[in-house]
Design goal:
With about 220 residues, the chain is mainly α. The protein has ten helices and no strands. The protein has a domain of about 140 residues: Tetracycline Repressor, domain 2, CATH 1.10.357.10. The N and C termini lie far apart (about 90 Å).
Length: about 220
């Protein structure tokens, strides 16, 4: 004779050190991402093995494969983490100046170069190493580049004058400005931040001002 299982015998996983199993799993994943950001940013993706990542995170391979299917999947997560942090940082600085183009541009540029200088390892991953591993990043690299371009378009559109170009031409101009900014950051990192940040901000500010006048952006007329 079979009997129905007593539901009271089915117990959830017990918390360990005050954390649930899901919380511990999330913490391990975050530790692996943080380790990957450090190692990929310092040594480059091709030089870093899964064993090195696990040692840096103080975790075993079992926990690596619990969180990620491959080293490339971890690379994508690390890149996404860094770009998200950068976007949030510049938005915080730019938001108070959305109606004033020169102040908006200056705030965004100061925080861009400031983020790079404060976080050289993260910046190397985001600005330099990402260029070398675009194939491994798949669609993520292009998506984040487009996000940066879209952010520039969104904050600029409300400030445009009547002589604004078509959206397609406007997007090309935005891509050109973003590309120039990334190239400046790459060169600054490669020269170990030799050029004073004030010179970088002023020079890039003038570039944005020229584009702003061409677009008829209020504040640059």
């Amino acid at each position: 004779m079979t009997t129905q299982a007593d539901d009271s015998s089915i117990k959830p996983a017990r918390p360990y050190a005050g954390k649930s199993a899901q919380e511990r799993q999330n913490a391990r994943r975050l530790a692996l991402v943080d380790a990957a950001v450090r190692l990929f940013g310092e040594q480059g993706f091709s030089a870093v093995s899964i064993d090195m990542i696990c040692a840096e995170a103080a975790l075993t391979k079992r926990y690596f494969y619990e969180a990620f299917a491959s080293r490339e999947a971890l690379l994508t997560a690390a890149y996404e983490s860094v770009t998200r942090e950068y976007f949030q940082a510049i938005l915080v600085k730019m938001t108070p100046h959305m109606a004033d183009a020169p102040k908006l541009v200056r705030a965004g540029l100061k925080e861009t170069f400031g983020f790079v200088r404060r976080n050289p390892v993260k910046a190397r991953l985001m600005m330099v190493e990402a260029m070398n591993v675009r194939g491994q990043l798949g669609d993520m690299y292009g998506a984040r580049y487009d996000d940066f371009v879209e952010l520039l378009l969104q904050v600029t559109r409300p400030l445009l004058g009547r002589q604004a170009p078509s959206d397609k031409v406007f997007r090309v101009m935005a891509k050109a400005v973003v590309g120039a900014l990334i190239h400046l950051c790459q060169n600054w990192i490669a020269t170990d931040f030799a050029q004073p940040v004030d010179e970088l901000v002023e020079g890039t500010e003038r570039l944005f001002a020229g584009v702003g006048r061409e677009l008829g952006v209020r504040g640059y007329n």
